[in-house]
Specification:
mainly alpha; Non-ribosomal Peptide Synthetase Peptidyl Carrier Protein, Chain A; 0% strand; globular
Length: 79
């Protein structure tokens, strides 16, 4: 199961942006989230999902890429 839905729910609750308004494959910054908003979003993701994102998350620009990283982290936790 992809974490994309979880990320979209967090964005909807935190920024009042409907998931249908965001393209998961386009840069979050290009869609109106500035660097501070993205940083706050990532902290919120860690808190809500109980994860610590590795440094590689800094290269991830899209929700789809972030969801894939979170899915890999969750798979490691289960294994």
């Amino acid at each position: 199961m992809s974490s994309l839905g979880d990320l979209q729910n967090i964005i909807r609750e935190k920024y009042n942006i409907e998931p249908s308004a965001l393209d998961p494959n386009q840069s979050m910054r290009e869609q109106g989230l500035d660097s501070l908003a993205v940083a706050e979003f990532l902290f919120e993701v860690e808190d809500r999902l109980g994860l610590t994102l590795p440094d590689e998350h800094q290269q991830i620009e899209t929700l789809a890429g972030l969801a894939a990283l979170i899915d890999r982290l969750r798979d490691k936790q289960v294994a």
